[in-house]
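Pilot study result, target chain (92 residues):
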Amino acid sequence: MTRKKPKPIMQETKEDTGIKSPISNSSTPKPMMSNPKPNELPIISFDVWAKTSGIKMDQLAGFRHYCNKNKLERLTIPDWHVEFSKFLRKPV
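Predicted structure:
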Protein backbone atom coordinates (compact mmCIF):
# COMPACT_ATOMS: atom_id res chain seq x y z
CA MET A 1 0.00 0.00 0.00
CA THR A 2 1.17 3.46 -0.77
CA ARG A 3 0.73 6.11 1.78
CA LYS A 4 -1.08 9.32 0.80
CA LYS A 5 0.61 12.65 1.38
CA PRO A 6 -1.11 14.73 4.05
CA LYS A 7 -2.95 17.78 2.80
CA PRO A 8 -1.22 21.05 3.69
CA ILE A 9 -2.94 23.22 6.26
CA MET A 10 -2.67 26.29 4.03
CA GLN A 11 -2.62 26.18 0.26
CA GLU A 12 -0.50 28.56 -1.78
CA THR A 13 -2.68 30.75 -3.96
CA LYS A 14 -2.11 31.08 -7.67
CA GLU A 15 -1.33 34.77 -7.26
CA ASP A 16 2.21 35.52 -6.21
CA THR A 17 1.57 36.93 -2.76
CA GLY A 18 4.83 35.72 -1.31
CA ILE A 19 2.97 33.79 1.39
CA LYS A 20 3.97 30.16 1.47
CA SER A 21 2.43 27.26 3.27
CA PRO A 22 3.83 26.92 6.80
CA ILE A 23 4.50 23.23 6.21
CA SER A 24 6.20 23.58 2.84
CA ASN A 25 9.87 22.68 2.79
CA SER A 26 10.78 25.18 0.11
CA SER A 27 13.57 27.49 1.10
CA THR A 28 12.21 30.96 0.58
CA PRO A 29 14.63 33.82 1.02
CA LYS A 30 13.89 35.66 4.23
CA PRO A 31 13.75 39.43 3.96
CA MET A 32 16.89 41.07 5.25
CA MET A 33 16.37 43.35 8.20
CA SER A 34 17.60 46.81 7.49
CA ASN A 35 20.20 48.28 9.79
CA PRO A 36 18.59 50.24 12.59
CA LYS A 37 18.94 53.99 12.38
CA PRO A 38 21.60 55.42 14.64
CA ASN A 39 20.33 57.20 17.68
CA GLU A 40 19.17 60.55 16.45
CA LEU A 41 18.92 63.63 18.60
CA PRO A 42 15.42 64.91 19.29
CA ILE A 43 14.22 67.95 17.39
CA ILE A 44 12.85 70.57 19.77
CA SER A 45 11.17 73.93 19.44
CA PHE A 46 12.66 77.29 20.36
CA ASP A 47 10.64 77.51 23.58
CA VAL A 48 11.94 74.18 24.88
CA TRP A 49 15.51 75.11 24.01
CA ALA A 50 15.09 78.54 25.65
CA LYS A 51 13.99 76.92 28.94
CA THR A 52 16.95 74.53 28.99
CA SER A 53 19.66 76.86 27.68
CA GLY A 54 20.00 79.13 30.72
CA ILE A 55 20.50 82.20 28.52
CA LYS A 56 19.41 85.62 29.79
CA MET A 57 15.93 86.81 28.84
CA ASP A 58 17.10 89.90 26.93
CA GLN A 59 19.36 87.76 24.73
CA LEU A 60 16.55 85.25 24.20
CA ALA A 61 14.22 88.03 23.03
CA GLY A 62 16.73 89.14 20.40
CA PHE A 63 17.45 85.55 19.42
CA ARG A 64 13.71 84.83 19.08
CA HIS A 65 13.45 87.73 16.62
CA TYR A 66 16.48 86.37 14.73
CA CYS A 67 14.87 82.89 14.58
CA ASN A 68 11.55 84.24 13.32
CA LYS A 69 13.35 86.28 10.66
CA ASN A 70 15.36 83.25 9.48
CA LYS A 71 12.38 80.86 9.83
CA LEU A 72 14.08 78.58 12.35
CA GLU A 73 11.35 76.47 13.92
CA ARG A 74 12.57 73.10 15.21
CA LEU A 75 16.21 72.04 15.52
CA THR A 76 18.35 69.74 17.62
CA ILE A 77 20.03 71.16 20.73
CA PRO A 78 23.51 71.38 19.12
CA ASP A 79 21.97 73.12 16.09
CA TRP A 80 20.28 75.65 18.39
CA HIS A 81 23.66 76.38 20.02
CA VAL A 82 25.26 76.86 16.58
CA GLU A 83 22.51 79.27 15.53
CA PHE A 84 22.81 81.15 18.83
CA SER A 85 26.57 81.54 18.34
CA LYS A 86 25.90 82.87 14.81
CA PHE A 87 23.42 85.33 16.34
CA LEU A 88 26.00 86.53 18.87
CA ARG A 89 28.67 87.03 16.16
CA LYS A 90 26.50 88.97 13.72
CA PRO A 91 27.26 92.66 13.44
CA VAL A 92 24.90 95.03 15.22
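One observation from the pilot: The mean pLDDT is 80. A full batch analysis is planned for the follow-on phase.
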